[in-house]
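All the exercises in this workshop are built on plain-text protein records. Sequence and backbone structure share a record, each on its own labelled line. The structure tokens are whole numbers drawn from a learned vocabulary of backbone shapes. The record below serves as our worked example for the rest of this section.
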Amino acid sequence: MTAPTDTIVAAATPPGRGGIGIVRISGSAVRKIAAAMLGGEPAPRHATLVDFLDAGGEPIDAGLALFFPAPQSFTGEDVLELHGHGGPVVMDLLAARAIELGARPARAGEFTERAFYNDKLDLAQAEAIADLIDAGSAEAARAALRSLAGDFSRESDELAALVVQLRVFVEAAIDFPDEDVELLASEEVRARLEEISRRFERIGRAAASGRALRDGLQVVIAGRPNAGKSSLLNALTGFDAAIVTEIPGTTRDLLRERIHVDGMPIHIVDTAGLRDTSDAIEVEGVRRARAEAARADLVLYVVDGLCGLNDAELASVPAGKAALVVWNKTDLPQALPAPAFAHGAPVVAVSALTGAGLPALRERLKSAAGYQGVEAGVFTARRRHLEALARARTLFELAEARLGERSSFELVAEELRQAQRALGEITGETTSDDLLGSIFGQFCIGK
């Protein structure tokens, strides 16, 4: 894969007014554009105070010019950055002048895409740039920075290298069938199998935590009226996000809030109480509650501890949906004892009023997302990374089982090759143009 050779331009700072605005230009025409707009080529990697000139030689603005010659630049091409006053008119005029001189408007993410094509970074590192920009907590930002530094890429590359080494043994056994049993039963092969299994476990755990840090958990609070759903939302958020009354049906529409648990974002939706009603507005609220529950990662089904849970209640949770029963109002002396499980769903006892049990609930939420806390090795990850890891691990385990049976060595070699290919998808070593377009299309224009 090779990068295009034309020149692109875009504002690298957000739209709107600001003290400073940056226009970034990358490509083969940068030196020509610099000569026309700046009156000459700036010294490489030095900030130069200069006028930015229009076609008539009149200043558009005055600011700092930074020139990064290829290949020592972010994109691997000649790059020019114009740091001017951050008004939208100034930014538009600077970009328009660059277009007059041969550049074209950049697509979303095209600067980072060119960095990928020019081997300045791999695909996991490129995605980490977007994750760092979008980070919602300090922990998520640190995890994204570790991926940008190459931690995730190194882990996946090292694992792929171990798989390749195992393939070498298997293919040697195919080429020398008289020695295959002894070769593949050797202590060295067993040690390699164990090491690969350990690596899959380690990288899978770190990636799952990283994905939880990035995407968080979509949680819906459901239950019958007056079970304490809105009180639970208020207790989790730490402020009065929802109106709480003793009148059944107070909550009629969806109420969305976002919290962080040890840096992991949790998107919580409080819903209308689930019951049969003739009130048209409440009927619509119940319909929306059920629809939202179907889309959630986890349903917190709140139970009034004074009444307990009847056999039909959890039937309102969509089939196959992960659920956690929250046994509320445990501070009241007449509350029923909370069971360990209710109709197959685990139970956590809380008091939304006093806060009792909330630490245990937060731990359950982290566990449901696969988040094991911020460790030194956690890096940001996406759903596609976890899917690639899962495919690679499944293929490896199939190959391992065949090796144990001492049969179908050709299939073992092919399964290991496919596992290696799946791991290569993480860094972009093996990927499709459609996937690249989808990933970089989600970036900011100018990045």
Remarks:
- The two ends are 20 Å apart (CA to CA).
- The longest helix spans residues 187-215.
- The first strand starts at residue 8 and ends at 11.
- The chain has a mean pLDDT of 87.
